[in-house]
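Hi R.,

Here's the chain you asked about this morning:
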Amino acid sequence: MIASLDNHQDIFFIGIAGSGMSALAQYLAGTGKSVSGSDRFFAADQPNETKDKLEAEGIQCFFQNGSGITDKTDLVIVSTAVEETNVEIQKAKTLKIPVLLRSELLTLISDTKRTIAVGGTSGKSTTTALLFDILDHAGFEPSIISGAGLVRLQRQAKIGNAHVGKGLWLVIEADESDGSIVSYHPEVGLLLNIDKDHKEIDELKSIFQAFKDNTKTLFVVNASNPLTTPFSQGKRQDFSSTGAEAGYIATDFTQTGFQIQFKINGTNFSMNAIGRHNMENALAATAVANQLGIDMKICARAVKNYQGIYRRNQVLGHKNVQGTMRGIWVIDDYAHNPAKVAAAIRSVQPLANKVVAWFQPHGYGPTRFLRDEFVKEISQALRPQDEIWMSEIFYAGGTTTKNISAGDLIGDLRAAGSNAFFVEDRNGLADSLRPHLEQDSAIILMGARDPSLDKFAKEFFDKL
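And the predicted structure, written out as tokens:
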């Protein structure tokens, strides 16, 4: 691994359209580097919004055929999803160009800043965005590298997952799924929660312990989560939404429509979001910000103005459907692991008497690994009148054993007593579930990794 980016000016990204890769590419372009990249989703005569937005930032995009790597390229960045046989990796090696993993690049960047790293199984993107907003509102002029687009940046015609500020602070989303979180040496570490996802609990504990050991100054922990409690540094820094002993306590939660209200240490907060999990995300961000010297009232004002992030409780609209009197709210969400799916379902329940939830699992391996957890979490989240629908598992390519179906999970959920339905082809979802809608219903669509989910959700809303 190279020690610094100082002597590298012309940097090429293989798989630049991915959320983590595009964020790093934009960040480097914002610091004055010459950045380019390729992606297998770029194709001739086919529109690609991510490609257009990258090029608007001065980042040249290529088809993934090796043409973008030249003798001027002095550094190549890849993600763990890119296989060693990729033609561009092979070309980089032939030209003797150094190749870095995405996580190694983020480590180099974060070591040059006063970095706040947000870790945990769930809530990282939202908490990262909230921290960025609070620091920005307080005049810190921070930078951010996130896994999801902030709506406030997207409204400037950007992808929204990166920003280069003038200040010293950088907020990053630290990923445990590939173990890269252990590479960072942040000034401040934040641990939100631990749930089985990608890895077994014992392995996650080991990873988060290394994360804590590598944090330089301040490590803030969610005292509400039993698995994170052993990582606590003490009640002054930690936070809780269940009354556990901690320095920052959230109380008086209420949800009215699409807004939540609560108090943190007696200070009133409101947020344009739904679900207790978003209160907990705001609590985590506030606990860190206040430790950095930002007044609680400034935190509250920033949280009130928070505009959200892409595909997190994103309202597609309100639609009158035949047979319903009040109309149907349709919401799109990135939820993809058991805890997130359950939290997303619960967040919609205050909006309507009946929730109809749809979920597209991603990856045969992850679905097989989390089968029991999906069934347990979803069945516990559903009320007797609610329903869960699934379509077939999203397959992103590569070598895998296709010995499980989303229909298997639906069978398990039915056996557990849930109202569960399988519609193999999601294109038939609107017609299939329309007869199940009652006068007071809401629909939530959930899934991740599949780049066509955004388009599917909009088409579903139009068909409904």
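The chain has a mean pLDDT of 93.

Let me know if you need anything else.
M.
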